[in-house]
Automatic annotation (TrEMBL):
Gene3D superfamilies: Electron Transport, Fmn-binding Protein, Chain A (2.30.110.10). This is Pyridoxamine 5'-phosphate oxidase family protein. Signal peptide: none annotated. It comes from the Bacteria. Residues 12-129 form the Pyridoxamine 5'-phosphate oxidase N-terminal domain. Residues 162-192 are annotated as: Disordered.
């Protein structure tokens, strides 16, 4: 049934690449709300090495993941198979936010596929635990296709609107934690 892995080997990478979506979970250190977000667009996730993964974080309705990572770095990513081969893969780790104005962003960006409008950041995660589970109770679903709605929406937005959101609705989490607010630097304990 469940198994723990020392690193992301070839079969695990193939499983990750075959999934059309993944889920991201974070939480503040004390109180506040646990955040769980579904993520789509298969070309927005990349395995960087045996113990490091990254994904493109696109502008959306909230900024909880970024604020939680800034505060404590804790993150879990889950891949769940909806096909005949049942499996759940969880990647537990420590994440950090790399914004487009960070010099590292340019190199990280080359790990992803198509250009998506509205890229807010790259989330880089150093894996501390890699484990799977059977997924026997997960129902079967068929993928019809990726939704183009977010890309279409972002493509119509002027760059100034994204810049305004950094200090606006993406400046803080729903619990009031700093997120993209440029006046609140990332604490040293979550920097790498």
């Amino acid at each position: 049934m469940a198994k723990q892995f020392s690193h992301l080997d070839g079969p695990l990478r193939q499983f990750i690449e075959a999934q059309a979506m993944f889920f991201v979970a974070t939480a503040p250190s004390q109180g506040g709300r646990v955040n769980l977000s579904p993520k789509g667009y298969q070309d927005t996730f990349a395995v960087l090495d045996d113990h490091t993964v990254a994904y493109l974080d696109l502008f959306g309705s909230g900024v909880e993941t970024i604020s939680h990572l800034r505060e404590n770095g804790r993150i879990t990513i889950m891949f769940c198979s909806f096909s005949r081969n049942s499996r759940i893969l969880r990647l537990f780790g420590s994440g950090r936010v790399v914004r487009p104005d960070d010099p590292e962003f340019i190199d990280l960006r080359t790990n992803f596929g198509l250009t998506h409008p509205g890229i807010r950041a790259v989330i880089v995660v150093h894996l501390e635990r890699i484990a799977d589970a059977c997924g026997y109770s997960v129902p079967y679903y068929e993928l019809i296709g990726e939704r183009p709605v977010l890309d279409t929406h972002h493509a119509r937005q002027p760059e100034e609107k994204f810049a305004g959101r950094i200090a606006g609705d993406n400046g803080r989490s729903i619990d009031g934690l700093p997120a993209l607010d440029p006046d609140h630097p990332v604490p040293s304990h979550v920097r790498r």
